[in-house]
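Database export, one record per block. Field names are fixed; values are copied verbatim from the stored entry.
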Amino acid sequence: MDPGNGTTQRGYQDITVSTGIPFVDRLSTGPLDFEVIQVLFNSGISAILALILWKLTGGQDKCLDSKESSLVTSLIGGMIGHYSCCNGDTWSSEIGVLSDSQPRLITTFKPVRKGTNGGVTKTGLLAATAAGVVIGLTFFLIGFFTTKCASEVALKQLLVIPLSAVSGLCGSLIDSLLGATLQFSGFCSVRNKVVGKPGPTVRKISGLNILDNNGVNLVSILLTSVLTSIACLYIF
C-alpha cells in the first residue's frame, strides 16, 4: 500500500510507483523479488480463505447466512474485507493523486510533504470508501445469479454494500495509522524528496523503521479481514 494509504500525492519528479515506494528504493530490492513479495503479501490471505471455503462448500457459491453456517459466513466476510481493503488502497492511490490539498499526518493532523507514510486527504479517503462499495456491489450482483437463498436472506445481502464501504475506509485508516507510526518517512536533502529509509542525508518526518511497505500491507489487510469477518457474523 502506498504512503498514507493512497492519499499521498505523486508527481513525475518523484518517479514513484503505485505502491507508494520511491522508484529508486524499489529498484534496490530487485524488480522480480519485489513483485513476488508484493503479490504474496497482498493476496496470500484471500487465497488461503478461498481454498478453505472451496473445501467446505465444494465450490458452490453461498449467501452470507450465519444461521446456515457461521464458518462459511466468516470466511466470506474475511474475503470481502480483504478485497475491500486492497481495492480501497488502489483507488485511494490512483484517485488521491488528483487532490490539490496537502496531506495531513493521521496521528497529528499536521500538514506533511506529499509521499509521507500516514498522510491522508479527503479525496483519498472518499476514494477508498467508494472502492469498498464497488466490492460489495459486485458481491451482491454476482451472488444474485449464482446463489440460491431464501428471499429474506437474499434481501439481507444488500447490507454487504455499506459494510464493504466501511471496510474500504477502515482499511485505509488502518494502513495510514501503521504508516505513520511503524513505517519510516524522511526527507532526503540530496534527492529532495520523501524516502522510506533512514540515512545520513535524511531528516525524519515520522514513524519508526519497523515495518516496510509490504509489512503494512499484510497487517492492514489482516486486521480489516478479521474485523469484516466478525461484523458479518453479527449482521448476517
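Remark 1: The mean pLDDT is 83.
Remark 2: Helices lie at 23-29, 31-57, 70-96, 122-146, 151-156, 160-181, 213-235.
End of record.
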